[in-house]
Input
Amino acid sequence: MMGRSASGLALWLLLLASAGAVMAQADRVNKSSSGGLFWSTAKEEGDLMRKSEAQESTVGVDDNADLDGGFSSLDGMLQWAIGRWCFLFFFQLLELMEKLKMPSDAQLMQIAIADLNNSSLPMEDHHRALQELLILVEPIDNANDLNKLGGLTVVIRELDNPDPEIRKISAWILGKASQNNPVVQEQVLELGALQKLMKMVNSSFVEEATKALYAVSALIRKNLAAQELFYAKAGDLMLQDILSNPSIDIRLRRKTVFLVGDLAECQLESTHKAELPFFSNRHFLKSVVDLIASSDLDLQEKALVAVKNLLQLRTTEALVFKDYCDLDGALERMRKQLQQLMEDEYKRDYVMDLESLRREVGLVFHQKLGKVTHVPT
Output
């Protein structure tokens, strides 16, 4: 809508500028005496006629009248020509504006959905339609319109497509549309997409698995009903399997430990709800703590955040973190690692932030143990 208004305004300005330029040029020519050309005004023409009555009666025909073609003056003829030109140009501009009119986002979404429903189109067109939807659903209003247009059903159907690229983009669309959007979260859950996405997390196609986990995270984030369904479908075991398997792609492990930290934070905020047993499972806790030893700084940061949140839960036991998970040893090894990385000036700021977070985790841990109130350096 805004683009069309801007285009219309630009065309109107072009029209006014063009007309103004023509009229200004005409005025300059009328007032110029260079080159021997002089266009008379109506007043001047009358004066000339009174001064040359004898000559005019002899000739019988006014040369200027012939030149003006029935107009009272050349100026009048010029004004008429400009007016006619502007009138024609105006309608040409209207026709051009109609041709340049862009469809709305809703219309573009309808076109993409129709293409996905058209089985006669080649796979490339289905890819293009999904890519267009991926962009279009980013604004929250468009995401809310997706189900009204029948798009959610179509996209969820594509999760079963034999083409892994189609499945990947479809999961990505669902994740983007659901992110921080309770309306779409509820719609996607009602259509039964969560269980399909959880199965896709185990895909051997890494890109599909990461986008599926992204969609799962977007669906259950800050949504207690969705989290209950996630746990009912053994989501906690899915998370533990990913975290405890070092051969799994690191991108998937980053997303998983980030989700763990987010779920623990949500549990902390829901003080009226009983804490879930898997949060205090020693094997699960160890799989999270072990990530602190990773050489990937991003993964380490997300693991520290998750551990800090888990430590603050009422049902997690400090001695499990100490004896079974060896959290003290993990934090000490990380301290030595960060000391070495501090020498790299390009990483120094980030490393200092990580060291601050490491210290904070250590403080929370020792406070839970009840032994010390500061972190040894």
